[in-house]
């Protein structure tokens, strides 16, 4: 009895709210079921799995003997590469001095939420880690409701509604975080969307953080809009975050970055982040930074690799999207990244007859009864008792539908990347076919009486 009382006082109230990330949790569940001999189609984990571009891999190997601490802000060579790459993308003259490098973009977001004043406006749904990051900083979250169909589009009225609700409840909404292309929806903002969000944030003195970790995996120019483009980036309070993990399939190397505007706001926040970093993570891995400097190069070789990656993700993700629609699910066409975000609400009657009342129970049924791993919408902030468009949502990632293991990734990966450039080739993706078949089987089960 005494030990229980001692244990109950070990953790802070905040720590007791923390739990394993849903994305990592489902990955471990899949591994456990696979080890027991179950066949599982893994659509639950958003880890890009293409082979590393050869020059980037070589740079990492050659830098493996660099063991000294690098500057807190990051290796000069890498900051210069990021600035040059983003200057081209953003059509703005980004300076290396505006860039801060970290071991992934996650710690940078933690730092920003810890350092910036005010509570947070967060679109619903949002990536699973945003909510705990904000909670960790002791801030309140006020959800911004998105379009019922695509679960991404934000209107001026939905922004004003969230802001007014925050004020009425005693909040101090001073920060907004957006993610485009989006995890979990695969949707992306267009220029009009960005204008609405940027104007609203500026008029209410809100710092806008734009997480653009998937920005290079955009399926069209129309949906690659960002609030940080052109000279507008240096007007007001905006911060861009990104990283190496998604486009370059190098999540385990842990390289992220933030870009701050060239104004007084940017300089003050950047200075605070560097002080925070010096006491927290010190610096990102030296070999990974050296390799990242090659990855962010604007060379023809890296531009080719980025094009191959986008075309492959687009082909695979759209194929899964079309299959989901044919199964009668409510799903919008993805505009980027490698996610689809279907709702099973057209099967509400059949689901309730099976005792499945929410997305969590649907996710569990799908993996246990149908061998398909997908994350529930509730992990992304969806309200299973809310508007029908957010109910019975599942996030499905296509990133694991190319290779069965690490060996196959490097034996076949470069050949598959080369084939991506020819839209007319008959590219075979057996794991994609298996995923589609498994989902078709799940839909067929739902059509039958339980």
Features of this protein?
450 residues; alpha/beta; Aspartate Aminotransferase, domain 1; Aspartate Aminotransferase, domain 2; 2 domains; seven-stranded mixed β-sheet; three-stranded antiparallel β-sheet; 43% helix; disordered N terminus
Specify the helix fraction band.
40-55%
**Alpha-beta classification:** alpha/beta
- Architecture of the largest domain, CATH level 2? 3-Layer(aba) Sandwich
Shape: globular
Rounded to an integer in angstroms, the radius of gyration calculated over CA atoms is 22 Å
Structure overview:
The protein has 450 residues and is an alpha/beta fold. It folds into 2 domains: 2-51 and 301-447, Aspartate Aminotransferase, domain 1 (Alpha-Beta Complex), CATH 3.90.1150.10; 68-297, Aspartate Aminotransferase, domain 2 (3-Layer(aba) Sandwich), CATH 3.40.640.10. It contains 15 helices and 12 strands. Strands 2-8-7-6-5-3-4 form a 7-stranded mixed beta sheet, with helices on both faces. A 3-stranded antiparallel beta sheet has the order 9-12-11. Strands 1-10 form a two-stranded parallel sheet. α8 links the parallel β5 and β6. The chain is globular, with a radius of gyration of 22 Å.
Quick recap:
The protein has 450 residues and is of the alpha/beta class. Helix content is 43%, strand content 11%.
